Amino acid sequence: MTTTTGDLTGAIVEGRYRLRRLIARGGMADVYEAHDERLDRTVAVKMITTEGVAGFDLKAFTHEARTIARLSHPNVVAVFDQGVHQGLPYVVMEYVPGTTLRDLLNRRRRLRIDEAVELFAQLLDGLQAAHDAGLVHRDIKPENILLKNGGRGDRVKVVDFGLAEAVHGDRESAGPLVATAAYVAPELVNGKPATTASDVYSSALVLYELLTGEVPFDGPDPGAVARRHVEEDVPSPQLKAPDVPESLAELVSAAAARRPGTRPVDAGAFLRRLQAIDVKPVPGTTGQVPRPTRAVQTTMVVGTPHAKRSWKALITLVLIAAALISVAAAGWWIGVGRYTSTPSLLDQSRDTVAAFAEEEGFDVDVQDGYSESVPIGEVVSQDPGVGDRIRQGATITVVISLGPERYQVPNVAGMSEDEAREALAAFDAEVTVEREYSTEFEANEVVGTDPAAGEEVKAGTPVAIIVSDGFPPLTVPDVVGMDEDAAISALQSEGLTVGEVAPRHSDTIPAGSVIEQTPAADSPAGAGDVVDLVVSDGPEPIEVPDVVGMDLDEATETLEGLGFTVKTAQIWFSGTVFDQSLDAGSEHPKGSEIWLWAN
Questions:
Q1: Greater pLDDT, 527 or 486
Q2: Which of 311, 455, 474, 543 has its CB 3.0 to 4.6 Å from that of 525, i.e. a possible disulfide?
Q3: Which fold has domain 339-401?
């Protein structure tokens, strides 16, 4: 296998992807911004380097690329194509303008808690889509998390699913460890196969870094760092950032447990637990490790009375105290006593949530909503959140999953472009327009869509409207020599109309075949133009003359002059024709055989 190396800027891959500039370079692969000259769009091409191609599993790489290409999720970088260029495997991906999460951390070190959780939730949402498709990433880290458009809206895009797996072995066997030491799961260090729980561990360490500004284990020796994941527990992020809420810190520790079985089983389970906790910062903290402060104790001293009080005074004091206690109790009830913590309804379903809430002393308001990760009929979220302060007997609003939000692409064939756009606006499709020639639809009519009508897609899915440019430019095909039916079919398949079909005798063209066509072959034509044909009737029939009584030589000359083939039989020597095989006055094709008998 011949391989190439170095900067491939300017190269054209597969006759389609022109590499414009090198935008990233790594140990296993280089990434180029490229132009897809077939679809006229900007893409990213990741090219495995000469160093990375050693031991490369092309079959695994192809399988992973095809699986990812079937994913359609706003938080996963789309894969369009894959192949091998000059011995180097490559994958063509969605081009994401923006930056990486690593770049953001380099600038800011740590993020606000609410911002970190919002970004991380999108990461888990995209990762869950891959887990549902049977994919394990194996190398979750800030460098593999892209932030689209500088960090607004659906900004998180997870990239490089399965790349490490393709380069260094499959998930079912213990191969060489390929992962970033600061984020690697302990079981991978021990040579065990990667699972969704391995991605959960690496993701938890990314969240740890977002909250604290550093990774839990670091050092100059990657091997030593990797062993620490096996030998040490990940410390609580509160040790580095005291403003991290206790519930969030506990979730990070649970997801970063050394034993895979004690972590959330996959990204979806991790996300549901994240959504169920309160992420408000701990009051009175700034996010930096506080300096030790001197403890201050305030003591109230009550002296012993020296004068004897009367019973009347004592009763008065008791009544006053009782009144104060009643007021205090009422105030406690109004301000605190009638409130409790909101129970978790997240493990319930549409069928059980009302009864469960009633047992806990609450009403529920059930609403429907779509979810990419929560199964149909189960609780997606609740308000107030788990553990929030709530009045006893109050109403908890729960959202029940309708499953993933999917819409069926409508059939817009035959519509105008504006009509098609209006039909696709029902699910906020990101519409693009492509144009092509069509023999079925007139110019400016919609031919179809990509994805095709009837396919189920998410809201906001890119949909290409294919608009007709009318019939394609035509040239008249050569139908001379074809039989009549075949010639007519060939012309009609090109969008042409068969005009006059005239018969003509021919000594060389078999009956039923085309002798001439007008316009001639390869002449330019437009859709629906008329082509006239001349079809052979075979040789022209000739009337047989009466040659009985003629001299044999004269009769032979006459018949041969008309195109007949003459055979003779002479009985006597006088040479006068007394009979002929074809009757005088009958018609026969030129070249027919006639016998003459003479005496």
A1: 486
A2: 474
A3: Trypsin Inhibitor V; Chain A (3.30.10)
